[in-house]
């Protein structure tokens, strides 16, 4: 997938900053898509850096200030997080509408094929968007001008092949270069005989293949074990891959007003009124390996010291929703739950305009209690200021 994280993103960067090669008789004065220049580019780069506290630690390396660092060893993952992740929201106020919609269409295609599970209906829609994207790219940028032929790079054309290749070999994450690079790095870390590293490396690779074969033949070797020694001390295994992690209250804490009512409502208590006492937990490990945190502890840290992980995707009744978790706890019956606030549904106009790439919500209000096992994943929710007059 380095074509997306490096080649495609770099092409869009070169176009929007006007740094792509210009050949006569073409002139840059006719390029109305060049908007990331001067102070606009500096503010945009700072906005990328300012997003860091709102990106969970499970999102790995956050992108640095694009205006200062993009030519100083910007990593493939930084390109991906910057342009594919943050790009649609940050570019809404900058790019002219037709270019912004076109860019968001391409990003929606890339996001779709980055999924590990790819429903057939989504793949068909993404394939149609990919065909439209390539055709519109030529109409918007190339414009059948010979001197602009170098605009149409292989990273644009490859989009039309994503769906057929997904049918043939599966979704992109399973055939991407990330996996091979990670394997090379892990095997390199295992080298112990530096006097004969290549022989040692081949033996480590052979041993890993043998171990993977045993795991495939005997699935029980990788089964869930409630006595997993890798679980940290003081945690509580909830089963199904969910684990409550400390910090935890030493003594029960009084929960009052709307928060108490929300918990009583989830527990189907006879009365929705009255205070309750419980021990709060700070973190929850999810089956996908992410660790969801809570506002209870994150708010005690300065913003620059946080990689915010308290916003989660949940299923309650119907479509998935986004919630901000206040804390986790155990019910009197022993089931784990989370107390939080639901974000309102995203702005429908922005969602449509951006091909479902910009989920812009107002701040959450009120309290709602959610069963811990209804939490699917940790998501990033960055403050978003959008001037509607540019829509």
* Strand/helix succession: HHHHHHHHHHEEEHEEEHEEEHEE
General form: globular
Strand content: 5-15%
Give the neighbour order of strands across the main sheet. Answer: 10-9-8-7-11
Give the end-to-end Cα distance, rounded to a whole number of Å: 32 Å
**Main sheet record:** 5 strands, antiparallel
Give your account of this protein's structure.
- This protein has 391 residues and is α+β, with helices and mostly antiparallel strands.
- It has helices spanning 2-17, 38-50, 66-69, 76-91, 97-113, 120-142, 154-157, 162-169, 177-189, 197-217, 257-266, 295-298, 348-353; strands at 236-239, 242-248, 253-255, 276-278, 281-285, 291-292, 311-315, 320-330, 336-342, 368-371, 375-378.
- Helix content is 40%, strand content 14%.
- Strand 1 and strand 2 (242-248) form a beta hairpin.
From the structure above, extract its key features:
391 residues; SH3 type barrels; 3 domains; 13 helices; globular; 5-stranded antiparallel beta sheet; 4-stranded antiparallel beta sheet; 11 strands; alpha+beta
Brief overview:
This protein has 391 residues and is of the alpha+beta class.
Write the SSE topology.
Blueprint: H1 2-17, H2 38-50, H3 66-69, H4 76-91, H5 97-113, H6 120-142, H7 154-157, H8 162-169, H9 177-189, H10 197-217, E1 236-239, E2 242-248, E3 253-255, H11 257-266, E4 276-278, E5 281-285, E6 291-292, H12 295-298, E7 311-315, E8 320-330, E9 336-342, H13 348-353, E10 368-371, E11 375-378
Antiparallel strand pairs: 1-2, 2-5, 3-4, 5-6, 7-8, 7-11, 8-9, 9-10
């Amino acid at each position: 997938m380095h074509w997306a994280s490096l080649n495609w993103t770099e092409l869009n960067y070169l176009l929007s900053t006007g740094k792509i090669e210009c050949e006569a008789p073409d002139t840059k004065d006719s390029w109305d898509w060049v908007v990331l220049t001067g102070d606009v580019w500096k503010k945009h780069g700072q906005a990328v850096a300012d997003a860091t506290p709102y990106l969970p630690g499970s999102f790995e390396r956050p992108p640095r200030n694009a205006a200062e660092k993009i030519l100083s060893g910007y990593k493939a993952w930084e390109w991906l997080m910057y342009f594919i992740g943050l790009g649609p929201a940050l570019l809404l106020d900058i790019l002219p509408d037709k270019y912004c919609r076109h860019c968001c269409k391409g990003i929606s295609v890339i996001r779709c094929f980055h999924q590990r599970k790819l429903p057939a209906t989504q793949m068909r829609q993404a394939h149609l968007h990919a065909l439209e994207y390539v055709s519109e790219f030529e109409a918007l940028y190339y414009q059948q001008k010979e001197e602009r032929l170098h605009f149409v790079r292989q990273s644009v054309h490859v989009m039309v092949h994503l769906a057929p290749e997904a049918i043939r070999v599966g979704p992109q994450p399973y055939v991407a270069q990330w996996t091979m690079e990670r394997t090379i790095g892990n095997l390199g870390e295992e080298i112990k005989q530096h006097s004969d590293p290549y022989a040692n490396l081949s033996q480590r690779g052979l041993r890993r293949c043998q171990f993977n074969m045993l795991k495939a033949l005997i699935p029980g070797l990788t089964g869930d074990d409630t006595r997993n020694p890798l679980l940290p001390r003081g945690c509580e295994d909830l089963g199904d891959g969910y684990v409550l992690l400390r910090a935890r209250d030493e003594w029960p804490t009084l929960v009052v007003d709307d928060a108490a009512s929300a918990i009583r409502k989830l527990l189907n208590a006879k009365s929705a009124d009255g205070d309750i006492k419980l021990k709060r937990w700070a973190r929850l490990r999810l089956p996908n390996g992410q660790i969801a945190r809570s506002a209870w502890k994150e708010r005690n840290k300065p913003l620059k010291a946080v990689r915010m992980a308290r916003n989660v995707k949940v299923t309650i009744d119907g479509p998935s929703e986004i919630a901000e978790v206040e804390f986790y706890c155990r019910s009197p019956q022993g089931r784990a739950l989370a107390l939080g606030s639901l974000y309102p549904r995203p702005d429908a106009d922005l969602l449509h305009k951006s091909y479902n790439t910009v989920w812009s919500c107002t701040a959450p209000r009120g309290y709602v209690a959610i069963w811990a096992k209804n939490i699917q994943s940790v998501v990033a929710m960055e403050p978003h200021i959008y001037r509607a007059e540019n829509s």
